[in-house]
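Async update (no meeting this week)

Hi team, since we skipped the sync, here's where things stand on the single-chain job. The sequence we agreed to prioritize is pasted below, unchanged from the tracker. I ran it this morning and attached the output directly underneath so nobody has to dig for it. Comments welcome in thread, and please keep replies under the output.
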Amino acid sequence: MEHILELYQKPYDSRRPLVCFDEKSTQLLAHITDPLGLQLGQAARQDYEYKRNGTRNMFLFVEPKAGARHVLVTHRRTKRDFAFVMRYLVDVLYPEAECIDVVMDNLNTHHYHSLVEFFGKPEADRIWSRLEIHYTPVHASWLNMAEIELSILSKQCLSRRIPNEWTLITEIVAWEQARNEKKAKIRWNFTVNDARQVFKEHYPTALTC
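Output:
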């Protein structure tokens, strides 16, 4: 935990960006009957019945100190998908970066071997050498600032019925563009000292005296 918190306290460096990575599944839900729009003195209304059109996965990258984020929509979140989004991170989003610090949770797909399986060792080594992976501790995924950005995405963009993949992608692109134009940053205030107070029962006495 302290390792992640110390990483968050480092000053911004464009040559070594800090990127938080996470993923989320969302349902595609279509109206069966047309909803009723806003009227004077009456809120919009919709039928409780809907048509389920499957799910899509969203991979989210957010650079909290720069106020930048990017979302990729995929059908699944397999090892293959993880391998391709890591290559996308290195070659498309940050091609000029010397190294990228990536904060993510420790899912069974989030590993070097996923890249080896689909790209082969030479290409996997090229991609992985550009990354410094920082895994959040077990039961501490709240340390990943990408969860904050996913929550904002859910509230501002996805809190309604979205019927198909095309609509999902276009809505996310519009949301992403607006957030990036504002350079909306995440200000993380929870420090190592705070952690030692809040979780002091888990620390050795030497660290808390």
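Quick observations from my side:
The mean pLDDT is 90.
The chain is about 40% helix and 20% strand.
Reply here if anything looks off.
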